[in-house]
Amino acid sequence: MLFVLVHIGDANIDILRSAYLHVIGDETRWPAMMDLFASAKVDWSAAAFFQADREGLVRDAEAQRRLAALVRKLHEDRLLIKNGEFFNREGLRLSLDVMKPH
């Protein structure tokens, strides 16, 4: 699993930290994720999760390459967050919509 911690502003999303982790099984508890995110030592407001691979686990080197590619793409287009699972600090699912100019 690849994840990205972000800060949501009034009209922007800033990428703060990113990492990958290996998940075995289909359930990860939000409190455990909060403990992991606390080690990032940043003021994050949401987390986006992406599958590293549809087939299952990947080796560390491959996960690092895929994470680097994901972060590069997210810097170019924040709307790619829609391709993942997006949650706020409380673990509630978020959706991302394009803001239209007034």
- Order of adjacent strands in the largest pleated sheet: 2-1-3-4
Total number of distinct structural domains? 1
Q: How would you sum up the global shape? A: globular
Give the H and E element order: EEHEHE
Q: Report the radius of gyration as a whole number of Å.
A: 14 Å
Sheet-strand content, in percent, reads 15-25%
- What class do helices, strands and sheet pairing give? alpha+beta
* Biggest pleated sheet: 4 strands, antiparallel
Distance between the termini: 37 Å
**Average pLDDT for all residues:** 90
Tally of DSSP helical segments: 2
Number of distinct beta strands = 4
Unreliable spans are none
Helix content: 25-40%
Secondary structure layout plus pairing:
Elements: E1 2-8, E2 13-20, H1 30-38, E3 46-50, H2 60-76, E4 85-88
Antiparallel strand pairs: 1-2, 1-3, 3-4
Characterization of this structure:
The chain is an alpha+beta fold. The chain has one domain. The protein has a 4-stranded antiparallel sheet with strand order 2-1-3-4, covered by helices on one side. The longest helix has 17 residues.
